[in-house]
Design brief:
Length: 121
């Protein structure tokens, strides 16, 4: 019976490609389900044979541990050199979404507080 091996929702394409390649290299029989046209289905990689599940999970855990270490190291290097993306660099790069969000927050605060202020005056 098939079992879910790796959920693909919000997984970067390069990570999903690496997992597919890892399973192929280790001769593990797998298949993939997509999120579908309306993105409401369950995107995942499934293992066909139960006997391969433990080995596949171990391979993926090792891969993710290695990937996590590489990404953290890369981030620390970027942070040390001043190239790491911060919230302020994102705000400067995309000022319109930030401005619209602040306007929306101000509107919600106004609508929430106005009834109480009108009671006092």
């Amino acid at each position: 019976m098939a079992k879910i091996l790796f959920r693909l929702r919000q997984v970067p394409d390069d990570e999903a490609d690496d997992v597919r390649r890892l399973l192929d290299q280790n001769s593990i029989d797998w298949y993939e389900t997509s999120a579908g046209k309306f993105q409401i289905s369950f995107p995942a990689i499934w293992v066909r044979d139960d006997s391969d599940e433990t080995r596949a999970r171990k391979l993926i855990e090792d891969y993710q541990r290695k990937r996590s270490l590489e990404i953290r190291t890369q981030f620390e290097e970027q942070k040390a050199s001043g190239e790491a993306e911060t919230i302020f660099t994102r705000m400067i790069a995309n000022p319109l979404p930030v401005l619209l969000t602040l306007l929306f927050v101000a509107f919600i605060l106004y609508v929430s507080i106005k009834p109480f202020v009108s009671l006092v005056t």
